């Protein structure tokens, strides 16, 4: 009877499951139909809104033209003021113009702004409130240093100001930095509906230069598998800006995890599984709150999201997995005022197990689990704390969770979890369903009789389980086990000068790195490692050591081969057996302040950084061509660093402007051929004319200087009112005019008459050699976010084929528009991966790619410009492909075309390791004459691919797949899956390259709704995740979608 009852119950259960499955499929089909209808309605609304915006612009323009006509019929009220004042040799300004009545007393600031917004004279020109004038300080600003040759001034260079004006020209205003900027346009221009459309080209992330070594520690690790979890190839993973980078050192291929929407502050790798954990700082919105993301290093799919909703304060600063208990992750986050807090997580279920609040008021630098015992160590400024943790089995089951395909399996009911115990030092966390309660017991560290350091900077564990620390005194301390406290057992004094920043343990010894740029090898007897002929145990890596990752071998981590991350934001590979050091990841050590393209050499870019270097890069091979520090000197009063630069269009000379107002001209050999000093403020902009006959430079205090390059004599100079910083200079192709942009205004210079003039029809409509002025008529639409006062466009650049213009703002956003961009309502492709203001952006001379440089993150990102894939003929399919707006994805920089269903395994045709020895290998025609390098004969075949780095690989195309993290809300999860299931033509599939980092049909809508909206200025890309089916047919996708709903229920 009992058996019969059991069988009946099982039959009923199966019938119930079948019924639920049928209901789920019906619901999925209904949801598909509703979703398609909603998307069609949304597209209709969007089209009508664009039409309304166009009509509104036309009405405003007609109204404005009517006012212009009325003002032309009125009597002459005043004479238009000029936009700048020329300065003579003595520095005195020209006398004011006498034409017109004397200006009346100024009104209030607010009232004058309102009335001068669109004030016109009878001639129809704008009377500019932000006019330019001379200053008494010009003479001192033009003072010469005794060490540089003098530049003569001639009274004949001074020309009277142009008083002519153009009638009937429309003038528009854009609010920038609290000032209404005037932009004069052509008289006969009318808006075109095409001006508002999205560019047809797509932008894909192709390469990232740099490594975050300034604000992060222990963020460089080896992982196994790369883009194939079953592969034995080893890859490096590290973070830069808001990206998690996975680098194949053998081929130079980079892949990116872009699930974060703020700067990543810490990174760690699970010791046993394919899981990487990264923590970010907090932004200004709820969606950009500090949180932790766990993702697969092979598939780059999100496994779990921890925190959010301000649970983790201002930033997650430290992360560590436990080897003793593989389900446990520890994190340290910082709250307001710098207070540090510790949380123990069950990362599989996403629940916090214990929390120790306010553990220290000063920064915690490192966090580590002892692999031999349940002990956790936190170390930082004036802090070293040992935490004891107990373990036991959980008595209840965990809540059901949904994992992304390819993620590690959830824990079984027999998994060991942390159990509760009593402690008088920390308060227990409330129990979670199915999770045991945890208590942390704090144990102090006693230094007596040794001196207590100001900071403990590094922690590691010997194979025996002993704790070893490195501190700011340059000492290495070995700690005894607690009886009942931790005491110092042994001390190695002066191991490094300035502090021990990193410690890495191996089976045969350990490695230390310090502030003195040295890496040292030690035995477990705490003596320097003995070496044979040709070997070294002390290596200079060229910068302060931040992190060390040893090459994994069959016998464990290697003591002789390892990679080193530095505070100068570059990574090197070290072979101690051969005594060689080679660069794997190049990068600037400080803010990138200028990016320029060589006008006649394809794939050649120039970057200027506050680290004191000017560098040229090959964007095809992703290598550094040359680096020059020769012009940088250390002044007695302040350090002099380069700020701006430009390539000479004919020769190989480079003009570099410094922070002290000095302009250096470097020849091809890197020697300084000319030194010019016309101002005491920083030279913020430099630009050669198209023929190279003239050089114009602008300064922070608003000076403009124009030189002849034959002898670098000063032609003339002018200065802006209010010390308005010069940000960009553009030349006409025939060199008859140049436009100078300041922070809040712009003016024109006539080179034929050598005078500053008002905007003319010729100057506006002629062909410009470059377009880098955001306040120009053709680029005014790039400053659309300024109308809402949210961000400021700091740099822009036009492609050489005049099809696109790119703008970078002070929030790290990069947006590509169609050129010309007249309207502030124009749609653009937005990429939001820089974690701080963009310091420079430029199109490569062939318009193949864009290079952007960040200030706070000090990294450079190379973006490939590719045509958009052909859209499907079906209207419904086209609508579906543009509907997804909640994905977080990655870009694979190695594929030559967008991926569809399976990732390609394209490899680079050339490889290089990191030494100066170069050879030429036989390669295909398109990859010949590529430089390669070898480490040394000592590198074995098994580790050569690990040690190698493609410093000179051919250009790698960008493709990719998307990782779709699970959302917190089930309905949003189902909705996103439904959107993914609708995409059956591959144009918006997960396997297509990242929509957030570039690529994939439908990226335009994703960018506008998710990354580029001015309403969401703090880049809310969403921090939730949703699973997505990889099927390529709509039917298969819907079936898989139905099965997922059944499984969730």
Automatic annotation (TrEMBL):
Question: Which SUPFAM superfamilies does its entry note?
Answer: Quinoprotein alcohol dehydrogenase-like, WD40 repeat-like
Sequence ranges assigned to domain EML-like first beta-propeller in this UniProt record: 253-396
Map out region (Disordered) in residue numbers.
71-157, 397-436, 869-937, 985-1049
Looking up InterPro entries in the UniProt record yields: Beta-prop_EML-like_2nd, Beta-prop_EML_1st, HELP, Quinoprotein_ADH-like_sf, WD40/YVTN_repeat-like_dom_sf, WD40_repeat_dom_sf, WD40_rpt, WD_repeat_EMAP
As recorded in UniProt, coiled-coil segments are 17-58
Locate the compositionally biased regions of type Polar residues: 71-92, 872-882, 928-937
Q: Where is the composition biased (Basic residues)?
A: 111-121, 1040-1049
Please report a single Pfam family linked to this protein: Beta-prop_EML_2
Chain segments annotated as transmembrane: none
Q: What is this protein identified as?
A: Uncharacterized protein
């Amino acid at each position: 009877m009992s058996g019969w009852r059991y069988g009946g119950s099982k039959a009923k259960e199966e019938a119930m499951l079948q019924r639920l499955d049928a209901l789920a499929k019906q619901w999925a089909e209904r949801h598909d139909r509703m979703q398609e209808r909603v998307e069609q309605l949304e597209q209709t609304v969007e089209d009508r809104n664009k039409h309304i915006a166009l009509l509104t612009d036309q009405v405003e323009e007609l109204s404005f033209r009517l006012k212009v006509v009325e003002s032309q019929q009125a009597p002459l009220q005043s004479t238009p003021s000029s936009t700048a004042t020329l300065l003579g040799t003595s520095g005195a300004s020209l006398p004011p113009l006498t034409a017109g009545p004397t200006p009346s007393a100024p009104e209030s600031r607010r009232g004058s702004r309102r009335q001068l917004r669109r004030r016109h004279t009878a001639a129809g020109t704008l009377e500019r409130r932000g006019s330019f004038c001379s200053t008494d300080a010009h003479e001192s600003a033009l003072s010469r240093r005794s060490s540089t040759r003098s530049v003569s001034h001639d009274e004949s260079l001074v020309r009277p100001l142009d008083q002519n004006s153009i009638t009937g020209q429309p003038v528009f205003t854009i609010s920038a930095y609290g000032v209404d900027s005037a932009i004069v346009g052509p008289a006969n221009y009318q808006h075109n509906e095409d001006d508002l459309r999205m560019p047809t080209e797509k932008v894909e992330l192709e390469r990232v230069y740099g490594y975050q070594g300034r604000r992060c520690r222990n963020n460089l690790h080896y992982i196994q598998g790369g883009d194939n979890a079953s592969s034995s190839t080893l890859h490096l993973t590290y973070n830069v800006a808001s990206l998690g980078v996975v680098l194949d050192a053998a081929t130079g291929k980079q892949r990116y995890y872009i699930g974060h929407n703020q700067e990543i502050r810490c990174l760690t790798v699970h010791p046993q599984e394919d899981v990487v954990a990264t923590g970010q700082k907090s932004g200004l919105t709820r969606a950009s709150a500090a949180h932790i993301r766990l993702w697969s290093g092979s598939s780059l799919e999100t496994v779990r999201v921890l925190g959010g909703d301000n649970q983790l304060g201002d930033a997650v600063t430290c992360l560590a997995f436990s080897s003793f208990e593989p389900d446990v992750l520890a994190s340290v986050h910082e709250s307001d005022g710098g207070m540090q807090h510790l949380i123990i997580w069950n990362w599989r279920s996403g629940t916090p197990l214990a929390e120790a609040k306010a553990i220290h008021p000063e920064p915690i630098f490192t966090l580590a689990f002892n692999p031999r015992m349940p002990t956790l160590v936190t170390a930082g400024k004036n802090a070293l704390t040992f935490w004891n943790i107990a373990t036991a089995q959980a008595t209840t089951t965990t809540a059901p969770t949904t994992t992304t395909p390819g993620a590690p399996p959830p824990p079984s009911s027999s998994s060991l979890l942390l159990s509760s115990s009593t402690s008088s030092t920390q308060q227990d966390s409330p129990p979670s369903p199915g999770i045991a309660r945890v208590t942390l017991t704090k144990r102090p560290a006693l230094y007596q009789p040794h001196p207590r350091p100001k900071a403990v900077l590094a922690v590691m564990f010997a194979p025996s389980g002993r704790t070893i620390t490195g501190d700011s005194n340059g000492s290495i301390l070995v700690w005894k086990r607690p009886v009942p406290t931790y005491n110092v057992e042994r001390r190695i004094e002066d191991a490094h000068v300035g502090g021990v920043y990193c410690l890495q343990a191996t089976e045969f010894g350990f490695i230390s790195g310090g502030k003195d740029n040295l890496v040292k090898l030690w035995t477990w007897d705490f003596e320097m490692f003995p070496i044979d002929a040709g070997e070294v145990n002390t290596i200079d890596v060229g910068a302060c050591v931040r992190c060390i990752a040893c090459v994994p071998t069959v016998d464990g981590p290697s003591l002789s081969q390892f990679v080193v991350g530095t505070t100068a934001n570059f990574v090197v590979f070290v072979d101690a057996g051969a005594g060689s050091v080679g660069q794997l990841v190049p990068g600037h050590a400080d803010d990138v302040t200028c990016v320029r393209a060589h006008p006649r050499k394809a794939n050649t870019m120039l970057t200027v950084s506050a680290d004191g270097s000017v560098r040229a890069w090959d964007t095809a091979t992703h290598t550094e061509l040359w680096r020059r520090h020769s012009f940088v000197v250390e002044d007695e009063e302040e350090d002099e660093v380069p700020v701006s630069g430009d390539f000479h269009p004919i020769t190989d000379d480079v003009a570099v402007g410094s922070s002290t107002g000095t302009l250096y001209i470097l020849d091809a050999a890197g020697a300084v051929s000319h030194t010019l000093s016309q101002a005491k403020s920083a030279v913020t902009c430099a630009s050669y004319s198209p023929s190279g006959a003239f050089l114009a430079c602008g300064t922070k205090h608003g000076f403009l200087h124009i030189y002849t390059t034959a002898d670098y004599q000063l032609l003339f100079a002018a200065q802006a009112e209010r010390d308005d910083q010069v940000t960009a200079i553009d030349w006409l192709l025939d060199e008859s005019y140049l436009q100078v942009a300041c922070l809040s205004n712009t003016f024109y210079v006539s080179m034929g008459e050598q005078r500053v003039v008002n905007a003319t029809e010729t100057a506006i409509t002629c062909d410009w050699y470059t377009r880098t002025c955001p306040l120009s008529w053709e680029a005014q639409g790039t400053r659309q976010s300024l109308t809402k006062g949210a961000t400021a466009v700091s740099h822009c650049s036009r492609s050489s084929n005049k099809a696109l213009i790119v703008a970078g703002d002070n929030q790290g956003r990069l947006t590509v528009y169609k050129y010309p961009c007249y309207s502030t309502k124009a749609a653009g492709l937005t990429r939001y991966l820089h974690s701080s203001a963009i310091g420079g952006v430029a199109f490569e001379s062939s318009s193949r790619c864009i290079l952007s440089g960040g200030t706070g993150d000090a990294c450079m990102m190379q973006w490939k410009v590719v045509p958009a894939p052909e859209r499907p003929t079906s209207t419904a399919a086209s609508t579906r492909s543009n509907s997804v707006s909640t994905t977080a994805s990655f870009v694979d920089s190695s594929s030559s075309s967008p991926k569809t269903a399976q990732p390609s395994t394209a490899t680079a045709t050339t490889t290089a390791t990191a030494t100066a020895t170069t050879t030429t290998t036989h390669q295909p025609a398109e990859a010949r004459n590529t430089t390669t390098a070898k480490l040394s004969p000592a590198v074995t075949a098994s580790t050569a691919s690990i040690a190698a780095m493609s410093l000179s690989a051919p250009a790698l195309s960008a493709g990719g797949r998307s990782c779709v993290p699970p959302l917190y809300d089930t309905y949003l999860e189902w909705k996103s899956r439904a959107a993914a299931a609708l995409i059956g033509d591959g144009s918006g599939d997960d396997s297509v390259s990242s929509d957030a980092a570039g690529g994939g049909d439908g990226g335009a809508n994703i960018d506008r709704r998710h990354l580029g909206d001015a309403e969401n200025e703090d880049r809310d890309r969403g921090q939730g995740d949703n699973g997505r089916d990889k099927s390529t047919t709509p039917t298969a996708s819907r079936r898989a979608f139905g099965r997922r709903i059944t499984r969730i229920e």
